[in-house]
């Protein structure tokens, strides 16, 4: 897990507020992924980004969720108007540029969102 | 649509013995397979991987076997240690794309 930095580690929001989760990838990694783990479930893919580009957002809920990975700064997962069902652990992961071979994806420690 | 399945929710093994964790997949486009270990309140930690051109990869106490015709892979831990107690996730991907995870297997190693 060393190198992928996520913050905050824990976040409490009231229903209707916005949640912003940040992720800085490992040094040299240009690919960022966000995964969500709901209680008692496995990790579910949400979105895959490269700098300034969303490559695959097939796992993102259609509404209220957005992600970005700007040219400068961390990747941000933004959840607007949070509901109790958004309470989960959100994991960011990164990998180096794809060289055609399998790349290992390394995870951060996670951000635990609790909606009250 | 469970493309990666870990059918055993939990496994209990005596310290020093072998732990075998199994994983099946359905998508023939998967070419790269990984195992992650996860402790509560922490992120998944990469353990070992294997590409589809191999049938075995070994790293210390950990060995992953891939049977591509059966779409099955397994993780062997020998000898098992109490510190190995964690949730183990199998994951698969076509090269350069997102990981698809299984639901995980809880391993308990008893001393």
What can you see in these coordinates?
The complex is a heterodimer of chains A (116) and B (111). With 116 residues, chain A is mainly beta. Chain A is built from no helices and eleven strands. Chain A has strands spanning 5-7, 10-13, 19-24, 31-37, 43-50, 53-56, 65-68, 75-79, 88-95, 106-107, 111-115. In chain A, the strands form two sheets. In chain A, strands 2, 4, 5, 6, 9, 10 and 11 form a seven-stranded mixed beta sheet that branches. Chain A has a four-stranded antiparallel beta sheet with strand order 1-3-8-7, with no helix packed on it. Chain B is mainly β and 111 residues long. Chain B has no helices and eleven strands. In chain B, the strands form two sheets. In chain B, strands 2, 4, 5, 9, 10 and 11 form a six-stranded mixed beta sheet that branches. In chain B, a hairpin with a 6-residue loop joins strand 4 and strand 5 (45-51). The model of chain B has no long low-confidence stretch (mean pLDDT 94).
């Amino acid at each position: 897990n060393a190198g992928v930095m996520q913050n905050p580690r824990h976040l409490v929001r009231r229903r209707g507020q916005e949640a912003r989760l940040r992720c800085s990838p490992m040094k040299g990694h240009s690919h960022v992924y966000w995964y969500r783990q709901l209680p008692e479930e496995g990790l579910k893919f949400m979105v895959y980004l490269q700098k300034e580009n969303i490559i695959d957002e097939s796992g993102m809920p259609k509404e209220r969720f957005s992600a970005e990975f700007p040219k400068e700064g961390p990747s941000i997962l933004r959840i607007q108007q949070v509901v109790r069902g958004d309470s989960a652990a959100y994991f960011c992961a990164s990998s180096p540029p794809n060289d055609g071979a399998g790349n290992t994806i390394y995870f951060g420690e996670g951000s635990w969102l609790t909606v009250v | 649509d469970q493309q990666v399945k870990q059918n055993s929710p939990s496994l209990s093994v005596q310290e020093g013995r072998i732990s075998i964790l199994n994983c099946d997949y359905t998508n023939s486009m998967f070419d790269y397979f990984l195992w992650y270990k996860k402790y509560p309140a922490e992120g998944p930690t990469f353990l070992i991987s294997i590409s589809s051109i191999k049938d075995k990869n070994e790293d210390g106490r950990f060995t992953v076997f891939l049977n591509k015709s059966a779409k099955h892979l397994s993780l062997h831990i020998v000898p098992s240690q109490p510190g190995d107690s964690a949730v183990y996730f199998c994951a698969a991907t076509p090269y350069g794309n997102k990981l698809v995870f299984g639901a995980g297997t809880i391993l308990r190693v008893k001393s």
